[in-house]
Design a protein that fits this description.
The protein is an alpha/beta fold and 254 residues long. It has helices at 2-17, 19-25, 45-50, 76-80, 98-108, 112-128, 145-151, 155-167, 190-197, 225-236; strands at residues 28-29, 36-37, 88-89, 92-93, 137-140, 170-171, 176-178, 201-203, 213-221, 241-249.
Length: 254
């Protein structure tokens, strides 16, 4: 009996620790529609096709654009006031269901969504940004320690770790620190957000930054205020280039 129990325990742990073995036995339901899918992303092909992919975008800030609105596909704001970062990669428009998914990740801790969306990010990166130079490492946009304690995790850090693993890139989760708590930004415009975030971020080890190509990772790019402030901070400390990787980009208000 003891020998039989031990064999069962060994087999159980093998299956649990090797998730792909479970995938062979149990077909996974799609996270969005519950249809059976064997996709590694756990989102079925039909639902992936229905997502609002950001396929026509500003080449610098990834703002969703009409393909006929600008010959070179650079938005008006980037033409008149170029951001400090070189380019932004954002595979999805911040609309349903992506906005709802990101909200659930942050409010309910449903981080399993990030694994699926992270896989799709990497596929999108290969399709639309395959010519981008390889960065030296990835840095997540940080949360203030009080916010981190309240939420229990930083969704940007979780995403950065996943992307680093898929792209075989180092991830530095401690480089940028949000040392000052900022007010909630949901109702603020870009100018107000820039003022709100002034002096909030610091870099404790600038030697790591010098002459490096760095990617900043966040969940959503809205007004670009956070991305611009953190990018400028890295460039001021000697970074050679900064790019932004984000799951979603907010379309311009109509």
């Amino acid at each position: 009996m003891i020998s039989f129990t031990k064999k069962l325990s060994t087999k159980f742990h093998f299956l649990v620790n090797n998730w792909h073995a479970l995938d062979i036995i149990f077909q996974s339901p799609c996270l969005l529609c519950d249809a059976i899918t064997l996709n590694k992303s756990a989102i079925c092909k039909s639902c992936l096709a229905d997502l609002e992919w950001n396929v026509t975008f500003c080449k610098q800030c990834s703002l969703p654009m009409n393909s006929e609105s600008c010959k070179e596909l650079i938005c008006g704001e980037c033409l008149s006031s170029p951001p400090p970062f070189k380019t932004c990669v954002a595979p999805f428009n911040y609309s349903f269901p992506i906005n709802s998914i990101i909200y659930r990740v942050k409010s309910s801790g449903e981080q399993y969504w990030l694994k699926s969306l992270g896989l799709e990010f990497c596929r999108y990166l290969e399709l639309y940004h395959k010519d981008l130079p390889q960065p030296d490492f990835i840095v997540p946009i940080p949360l203030h320690r009080d916010k981190l304690k309240e939420r229990g995790f930083n969704q940007a850090e979780s995403l950065a770790v996943l992307l680093g693993k898929h792209q075989k890139l180092a991830v530095n989760t401690k480089l940028i620190v949000k040392s000052k708590m900022s007010a909630d930004q949901k109702s603020l415009n870009k100018v107000q957000r820039l003022i709100n975030l002034k002096g909030c971020f610091t870099i404790d080890n600038p030697q790591v930054v010098k002459d490096k190509h760095i990617v900043l990772v966040d969940d959503v790019v809205t007004t670009k205020a956070t991305s611009e402030i953190c990018s400028q901070l890295l460039l001021d400390k000697g970074a050679s280039r900064v790019d932004i990787w984000s799951l979603a980009r907010t379309p311009k208000a109509s």
